[in-house]
């Protein structure tokens, strides 16, 4: 199979939510994943606070996976605060928020490719810090992030009390 990565448009919000919810329903460890709903994906794709990406299977045109990066600005949720960044550095933080790849398309490095597309755009937009959270036992996502140069900067209860490793990558 061949895939292309495209930027999402606002109208993709329900598609994003549907794929994210489908992936979550199929998970053995549901506490490892925060399943965004359509209200959240709509807000992120229409407000300018998020960038969406989709992996499209070239032959069929089917969307195989999605990725959402979030621009937290000065919000209290900005993980730059967890990293001890100065207040004037917070606008340079982007959250690598949600990745979801449908089971039939796994094994094609789509999570990696989606994250790389987001990283390239975020770098071009002047972001310096990419941050995210991963359940410490989710080795697939953890290994994927480490392979891309992220490092664990700590562990906290995030997203309403869920145990998460906090990861960071500094762009140069």
CATH topology type = Aminopeptidase
C-alpha geometry: globular
Number of helices: 4
Q: Give the ordered list of helices and strands.
A: EHHEEEHEHEE
Query: Per CATH, which architecture?
Result: 3-Layer(aba) Sandwich
* Biggest sheet statistics: 7 strands, mixed
Structural class: alpha+beta
Radius of gyration: 15 Å
Please report the first level of CATH classification, the CATH class.
Alpha Beta
Question: What does the model show?
Answer:
There is one protein chain. The chain is of the alpha+beta class. It has a single domain, classed as Gcn5-related N-acetyltransferase (GNAT) (Aminopeptidase, 3-Layer(aba) Sandwich), CATH 3.40.630.30. The chain is 27% helix and 31% strand. The protein is built from four helices and seven strands, in the order E-H-H-E-E-E-H-E-H-E-E. It has helices at residues 13-25, 38-47, 110-124, 139-147, and strands at residues 3-7, 50-57, 63-70, 93-101, 129-134, 151-158, 162-170. Helix 1 runs antiparallel to helix 2 (38-47).
Keyword list:
Aminopeptidase; alpha+beta; about 170 residues; 7 strands; seven-stranded mixed sheet; about 25% helix
Question: How are the SSEs placed, and which strands pair?
Answer:
Layout: E1 3-7, H1 13-25, H2 38-47, E2 50-57, E3 63-70, E4 93-101, H3 110-124, E5 129-134, H4 139-147, E6 151-158, E7 162-170
Parallel strand pairs: 4-5
Antiparallel strand pairs: 1-2, 2-3, 3-4, 5-7, 6-7
């Amino acid at each position: 199979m061949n895939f292309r990565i495209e930027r999402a448009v606002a109208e993709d919000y329900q598609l994003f939510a549907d794929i994210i919810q489908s992936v979550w329903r199929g998970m053995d460890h549901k506490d490892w994943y925060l399943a965004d709903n359509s209200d959240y994906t709509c807000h992120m794709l229409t407000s300018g606070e998020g960038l969406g990406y989709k992996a499209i299977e070239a032959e069929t045109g089917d969307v195989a996976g999605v990725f959402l990066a979030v621009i937290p600005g000065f919000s209290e949720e900005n993980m730059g605060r967890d990293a001890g960044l100065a207040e004037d550095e917070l606008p340079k933080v982007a959250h690598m928020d949600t990745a979801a790849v449908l089971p039939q398309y796994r094994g094609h490095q789509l999570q990696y490719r989606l994250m790389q597309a987001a990283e390239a755009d975020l770098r071009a937009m002047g972001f310096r810090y990419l941050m995210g959270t991963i359940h410490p036992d989710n080795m697939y996502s953890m290994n994927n992030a480490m392979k891309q140069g992220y490092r664990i900067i700590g562990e906290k209860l995030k997203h309403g009390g869920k145990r998460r490793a906090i990861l960071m990558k500094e762009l140069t």
